[in-house]
Amino acid sequence: MCGIIGYMGSQAAAPVIMHGLKMLEYRGYDSAGICTMDDGTAEIRRSAGKLAHLERLIKDNPISGTIGIGHTRWATHGKATVANAHPHKSGSVVVVHNGIIENYLALKEELSDRGHTFVSETDSEVISHLIDEKYKTAGSFEEAVRTALKDLQGAYALCVLSQKDDKTLIAAKLGSPMVIGIKGNEYFIASDMPAIISNTREMVIMEDGEMAVFRDGGVKFSTIDGEEITKNSRFIDWSPLKAEKNGYPNFMLKEIHDQPQAVRNVIAGRLREDEGDVFFEALNLSDTELNSFERVCMVACGTSWHAALAGKYLIEEHCRIPVDVEIASEFRYRDPLVSGKTLVIPISQSGETADTLAALREAKSKYAHIVSICNVIDSSIPRESDGVIYTHAGLEIGVASTKAFTTQLVALYLLTIRLGRAKGSIDLKKGQEMIAALSELPDLIKKTLELDPQIEEIACEYLTSWDAIFLGRGICYPIALEGALKLKEISYIHADGYPAGEMKHGPIALVDREMPVFILAPNDRHLVKVRSNMEEIISRGGKAIAFCSEGDLETGRRAECSLLIPWAGEALSSVLFTVALQLLAYNFAILKGKDVDQPRNLAKSVTVE
Length: 609
Ligand code: AGP
Prior knowledge:
single chain; 609 residues; alpha/beta; Glutamine Phosphoribosylpyrophosphate, subunit 1, domain 1; Rossmann fold; 8-stranded antiparallel β-sheet; 19 helices; 24% strand; binds 2-deoxy-2-amino glucitol-6-phosphate
């Protein structure tokens, strides 16, 4: 999983590629590399670690040429070393690759027998050797690439150069995303549009099994089987968002503080107060069609999966329709029971998560109707959906998702209203009440953000902990999962989330004087039960920290320490509890001196399975 860039034109290639790589660093930052072709010589620079290392290397050892390729890596096969960094070179052939070659071991063995020496542990290196091998007998560079691709199993988006045909760049795609920007005789290849949109707005979206050969200021599109095809470009009319910290020390804190505005954005223009209803620009479903679904099935990964779980609580309660929530990576491999009567909702911040995209395609192949909830406009998931609800959270750079999650929660709340109104399970008055509750939310998020000093004190108090547990009931159960995930991701403290009532069925054995147990106890219908669960922790000598609702002075009294969070009603208080838990994880990580924006081993968007 990685980001790839290619450029051919009249400008110096290196700065264009480095800019693109910077935009793609969210896809991985274990290592990075670049190759420019200069008079038949492939100039390669690679470095382990973040892109800044490669930038320094290029500054010290500049490269030139107007054609080149680049790569930023999230390690799948082989450690984050220079040897494993792309581009990979064999003979005259240089390759950057995003995806996984599943038959690489067999290919490696075969190529080794033919005398090829491998210098990395990656699956990707076989591609350069394979093309190099095919080139020995093929009539052209293009033919060598084409025949090599036929032997590859797995997923790829790749760019290939050759020293023997130094005026040609070849790109191909199967399973991993690729777009091509065109500006006169200049071509920009990338894993996504934002990486190249500052260069051009004319984009061609590559489909699986397609190849593009750039030569002499022109491009020829074909299928991998060699059939020439015509591809039309489309004009991209949205503007790229700027990555700016606005005075915050890092993107994560900025994005946590963006949330009042992000929530305003997801709501903007969608409320029909008088009708107690919601309008979506691209849902593309009439009331009759909405009514015709027998089930809803949500598919997602990580934080987005937590949002889906929260959505199940909302939709089942208010719309009285069964909702299944599936981990996308499991969904596609078990012949899922979906049909034309199922509304499938993939949820994704990036819109590029490979597992979620694969789940979408699986559901589509079974004739399900797909409405995605997504943040990144025109990314692969919305492009392949029948309808889309954009969350409009703005650019999220921090690897740990914050505003993307809370806007997903709000988007699901809006969808609940729409679906409930269409089905008649939410009447006019109820719809109006649900909408009215939303109008307070941005200010209540602001109030929650003001709790930061108290939250920092809690983090200080439990800073030496190795483990933590988060408990919640009802819609706060997925919020507990999300709180645990945030803490794990950025502070590297092991944490688990459980339904509070489940604790006694096993995890309570972990309770001791060391491990903090964060108890989410909003003033909702579950409060009495959650209090009992808290007592079960306390009576076993556990460290209970209660997150309660403003006005509830009772619950916190029994805990070791507590925090009072504003009340926004049962459904929307989940957003405020999330904000408090984001700040908790953030403070733990900062006090421990961790890099919150780019935590170890992670990538913002996981584009391999
Ligand atoms: C969240 O903090 C994560 N970094 C991760 O779990 C993420 O939510 C997951 O990879 C799904 O990403 P998506 O929403 O872009 O599909």
